[in-house]
Amino acid sequence: MLIALAFMAALLGATLLWHAQQSGLAIVMATIRAASLGVLVWNRPPAQVFMGDAGSAFLGFMLGSFAIITHALGAMVLWSGRILFGVFLADATLTLFRRLVRTETVYEAHRSHAYQ
User: b/e for 102-111, b at 16 or more Cβ within 10 A?
Assistant: First the structure.
């Protein structure tokens, strides 16, 4: 489910950049979208590819840094990036907070994220 959210965020980001006449940045975002689609196709049940923490951290870093870069270049306002990629931050924050309230160990593997 996380990869589907990344795919949609990259699709919307590429569309916004394309309409803002930032074709170079839109192509970069479309590349991230295409890579997400590749993982999404192979990750249907029964899943054959597992992205893991390293893949999701890299994807989150790419999407988050891209929001900052497009804002710095004047291609998108920072709120666009916050709205597009805020679902990832909200999910991680709420999951961590919920695990802390329940006095669960926050650094152990779990399946309590909203996207799961």
Answer: eeeeeeeeee
